[in-house]
């Protein structure tokens, strides 16, 4: 323990945590500074300067003592205890001034007051231990009893101080009937005395308690008669086990809580096992044999991480130990981690000192460090493995390489998803905390990049890789069988506008529209032809208002279908008396900020514009209050005159009389992308390809005996071949998609499978990928063969793959009744089409002519024979760079559109090339599916957006920021239990203060 007086510990226990704390606070302050009044800015600067001076003073003193080769002096330890305790008390009492209620909580995810109680506690702990070591030298005898007596007297002194102050308040005020007008001088003095007694009393209590423990740990009793082993067993095993049991609810008559506790989730049996093993190692007598003593050092140091973890978890709660002991009989268990920590540190010090007399010091130090690294390396390795498993699963499902089979450990993934779900639970119920302090934060940082995984994706991954349909039945019905949105426009007709609730930007079906939602009051168009870039620049101005003027803080939202060749180039929202241009930001970061502002339910003014499909943008404006009219505008860049429909109003953009028809394809040399107008498409040759059945056979775990179940159905279907059709193909579908080689017996292949879920969405995308990559004289007619189509994991639609099915977007489900049921790939894939096929949908087996690009002799792409324009991608497109920009903004939009279309078939490059693609979108000012326009009210919101964007761009592209557009903050270093207990301590102190004041007020009355 005397080694703790080394000045080196100041750098580790004080300087480093203070530096991290100041950097984090500086980052938070830079975001919210513009929202703070001048007085709050002054408070931040004053507290920051004071803490920086304390930190610099400590570092300077440590350097000076190192140069002098002197230990830490007692006066320094005492000064640190008083100075930092006073700073913490003042910071806590000035919390309202530092963070006024006008500052949204989501902008400060790491509360500086809570962080202070965590980051400054190591400084106080080291100062306390150094002070105890200074007054407990090894060369003098010391008694335990006086220290225990002083430690016991302190809680009693608290009650006495409060009673005396209450009596003095009554005595000095007398019975005067004057009306109370605020705190008197007596109350002020009483408050100062109470705060002083709290600080001095708490420090004294821990000083004497730690000193008593330190003295006891130096004794060498090894027998039960001497009491040494009994004392060690109580401190190292009994108290920790009682603490774990109390945390998990064993003493509240509610049974054992398997997924939570008072201070966090410590319900795993391993916590109890490690507690017993750790205590046994500490209670074992020190071996006289050097080899065994070295083994004891390795074991004790290996489990020191376990002791230190609980010491760190309970460190911020130590100031609550005294009131907890007074109010709650089991409050003394808060001290168990401190007692165990002192015993463990002392034991390691004795082991090192004894072994250095036998072995070389470097060997002993190496053994100590190796043992200390065991648990940190174990958890880091375990979390890293879970990261790899999760990222492999995310890549296979959301950014797959369609040429590679899955390589996912389903069992490890299930365990990882269970941990992710537990860490997502931020239930603030005191007795059901499901997270593990610090470990959950480390897990979220290392595994999830400080983002999150939505419940939709967790359930989807579980269904795909485990096939547990029963456990996810509610997910299947809630997320995949919801009411379908209105269909997209039929070829050759005017597009319609979909209204939605704003609950989804990521492809989920929309709930029923809100009849009382704000509506479009007026719409106007401003168009001009830009001869330089030979494209139209149009502004659509929207005015929205509530249908009922009595409504407050409602959200206006709508979706607009865009024709090919039309890009979004700007967005504005009128906020107050100014027109605010939207910031083009990364989509997930923008959606997170928008959701956070909406969660405030205040009058702040955000507007969001983002893609919700390959050809559809979503517009959201908040708030629309009372009779106020909100104005928002969208800029469109389009090559030809177009018509848009917004909330049922058809708007004409551009005038065909002012510009010539586009009769030839438009290309950027070497880009691999071309824009083919409707007129130019009609000039391409018509060809007719041969269809073939491609059967997707359900061989998942939920499908019983698929070979026998499918044999008769397929025989009947194959007996009715497609007109002029090619031979049928087969693929086996579970978590993976396994093509059956041509000519092989599909029934024999089916008998070798039967695991995992029915991942139909992945199978369809793989077949369409092959059709796109290898266009030929034949095309697939997809037939899904399954006994229960509801068990399929299926995308909402496959509209971004539409270039792979130019003939028809129909696929079929062959169910247990042997009937072919048609479904659409472009719209609501899970919902059956009506018996009367909509116009434009071919009958089963019919072949529709298509256009061949660039010619019929060497076709590289097939296009639908419709009058709509198309973007043709014949290879990997180039993306505009800062060194090689596009000739115009419209052409930049064409290149970005082409790259996005190509990336739909090659999602494996998403993580690697997403950031350059987004940066190209920023430079061109063109909206893409990876970006959003976000109009914000103030600079603080913009700073928060940029901070979140840095985080999302550095993370895995498949991770999320919001859960169904509800605020789910991530990456907070303080566990919710700390917030509750710190609040409890403050309330307790406030209760004593109020008790004294209330008594005085009653005497006045």
TrEMBL record:
Comp. bias (Pro residues): 482-492
Ranges where the VIT domain occurs: 508-638
Region of interest called Disordered, as start-end residue ranges on this chain: 480-518
PROSITE patterns: VIT (PS51468)
Top-level taxon: Bacteria
Record-linked InterPro entries: MSEP-CTERM, PID_CTERM, VIT
Presence of keyword Transmembrane helix: yes
Keywords: Membrane, Transmembrane, Transmembrane helix
TM ranges: 9-32, 44-64, 73-93, 113-136, 148-168, 188-209, 229-246, 266-285, 297-318, 324-343, 363-384, 976-993
NCBIfam families for the chain: MSEP-CTERM, PID_CTERM
Name this protein carries in UniProt: MSEP-CTERM sorting domain-containing protein
